[in-house]
Design brief:
about 525 residues; alpha/beta; two-stranded parallel ribbon; 17 helices; about 45% helix
Length: about 525
Amino acid sequence: PFKLTIGLTPVLVEQLRDPLINDHFVGYVEGRVAAAELDVARAKVARQDQLGVLAEFYRRFYSDVLAQYRGRFDSNIVGAFKSLQESGHIEIATSAATHGYLPLVDRDSTIAAQIGVGVQAYTATFGRKPTAIWLPECAYRPSYTRSDDAASYVKPGLERFLAEQGLRVFFSETHTVEGGRPVGKAAGDAIGPYGNVPRRYLVPTPEYREPTNRTTFQPYWVAGVDVAVIGRNNRTGLQVWSGEHGYPGDYEYREFHKKHGESGMQYWRVTGRQVDLADKDEYRPERAQERVRDHARHFAALVEEQIGDYHRSSGGYGIVSAAYDTELFGHWWFEGIDWIREVLRLLSRSETVDLTTASEYISQHPPEDVLSLPESSWGQSGNHFTWLNVDTEWMWPVIHDAERRMERLVAAHGNSVGTRAQVLKQAAREALLLQSSDWPFLVTTGQAREYAASRFQSHVERFEQLATLLEQGADDATAASLADDLYDRDRLFGDIDPSLFREREGVAIAPKR
């Protein structure tokens, strides 16, 4: 019996439930099947035997994906995850509503709304409240004192907002718990988009905390609140994330960047680190699967070694948190999903390792120590640089202005009904959407700079249009029609509660116990 904690962000869940997204997914997979069939025919004409074998491999692969989706999962991926949670095999962790970068927002109302909307959407979908959360980008904010023209007051750490919603555990980067310099992904050693950041910037080196003599093998209560943090285990992380040492760079695995000029299929393997795309060798799925089994055995043995070494040195029962972005598996690393399957099979049979979920571990092995965490993330250099730099600094004053305006809208129209309530709800959705950490991230990495800036601006403009209507007393059919139209474009959080955006500056948050 395997156990696993998997984070599903609220926006992703809303997308997976959307009938249009499901129709488009089926259309995409059918298109892949058709493209592979055309390549099979092309290969026969050109007498390219290996290309024909690979094209047939993809035809079967995508046909099987479609059959599983329609049959085994009844075209309902969210329902499949819900079923696995109810059977006790997985814990679904939530996140902030639109993955806003919480340490850089200006108002506590924004943090409360991002987390509160995420929890409400989760509860409506899965029929229970979440107890674990993945903070967007692993970004953490401690409590600090802030002064304005009127007075000084304490801005609570993020753990207070989690406790308010009944959340019991979150995750952090390695250096957040251990102190010292960032390592692994936060140090820039990562495949995929995170590895692109240092190529475009001279990243300032921040001051680092001294080592804390704490370990990621243990959870900790955070700042005296009944909310625990689990730090990412760096050794297991390097085996997967590292662009230099990670499994995905194995020469037998499929090459991500080279695609067939007509079908877009990926028929080549990594071949070698310095091999030009033009010189890549053809992909051999059977060899790649041999490497999957080898790497799964290596990883399972590594986990057993890590746990065993910790037990022998401390006499304690420890935990290894091996956390990864799911886009790595199947996307950047095509064989990654097969690797996860094999790892879970091996570890579920291990005599020295128990598979568990984050919340279950905290319940069965409560932390024995309290830790004050620093500001941190798993972005470049372990701080906020990836989201706040010379190319993104223009975004944050705009976000901060929208935050304050949203507070004023809730204060003035929070008890409205009818059209005004409808417009206020859509303004709340647009406020959340413009706060997404994706927009500054994509600008920084350069992956989709123009798209990200355009999306950000469009949500800002929609929010300002709705806010102006409310401020002018909108209660007519035109305002209702606009709110309906904007809702239909993204179709998020149908039951959103705008009161979550009420002003909270200087208000003490009592932790739930």
